[in-house]
Sequence to fold (330 residues):
Amino acid sequence: MGNGYILKGQVLAFSASPFAGERPQDAARILDAVAVQDGRIAGAGTLAEMQVLLPEAETVDHSGKLIMAGFVDAHVHYPQTAIIASWGKRLIDWLNSYTFPEEMRFGDRGYADEIASRYLDLTAAHGTTTVCSYCTIHPESVDAFFSAAKVRGQRVAAGKTCMDRNAPEGLRDTAQSAYDDSEALIARWHGVDRLEYAITPRFSPTSTPEQLEAMGALWAKHPECLMQTHLSEQTDEIEWVKSLFPQARDYLDTYEEFGLLGAKGLYGHAIHLEERERHRLRDYGAALIHCPTSNTFIGSGLFDMAGLMAEGHRIGLATDTGGGSSFSIF
Ligand code: GUN
Ligand code: ZN
Fold:
């Protein structure tokens, strides 16, 4: 029978997307028990049904408690754990005043280990079992994060943040070193246990066209990887992108031109999208990542959830720790 067990409690399950029907509650079901065998869910239903499914399994009683799937946080920066909820005027000031100085510390593997562990413990305490995280430019910061997730048996995606301009000395790589370091990390971590690599150019303002081209080439060579970046978070950021890339049709085009638009791409924020950008993102089946607490805390604007869902976009939810003010996906 394998090493099965049955968890008894109030099991919250969903039969469809709560956004799909007329009333969100129509998609929700409350069941009594979950059967687990060989580390996987074998079934969910009444306690009697689960006892028929796994007759020899022990029942673990969690009556009065809620049993549900773990949350998936689709856009976080684990290195920003210590500066969460630092008040900034605008995105670029916030990056320069708090974020970059803190990210500088992650060249120290001991510090990266400490924060990676603290971050994963904090998110687990909020019911989050899977995250997709930015690390820093330091490969050590990626090793620290994947090592901490591996020890916990946890599924995470993460990648080395690549930046070769508009970032302070000590937080810049080059097009070539970003490519080489990222590729070595893919070889070391992608597909190990439940770990996935995400190729991570931070956003267009901190990458030269040469670096974006290198990241596009790396993704073409490793299409099994995710790719994560930021897109159209604040209006002054968009103006800056347009001045840095005068040939580009819009912000998304700075990624699209270099092969950084695809179905395994995660585009954080995506608030102030132009019509062409919305169409291209939808046609490619790319994922827009909605970061509500961050969008209001840093004053970026409001994500058009209803409009983008009606257009058929794929949308993920995220805290954007530490731009977001909480570790909780709620
Ligand atoms: N844009 C580029 N980097 C960042 C970051 O670290 N946080 C947020 N919210 N936006 C960004
Ligand atoms: Zn972010």
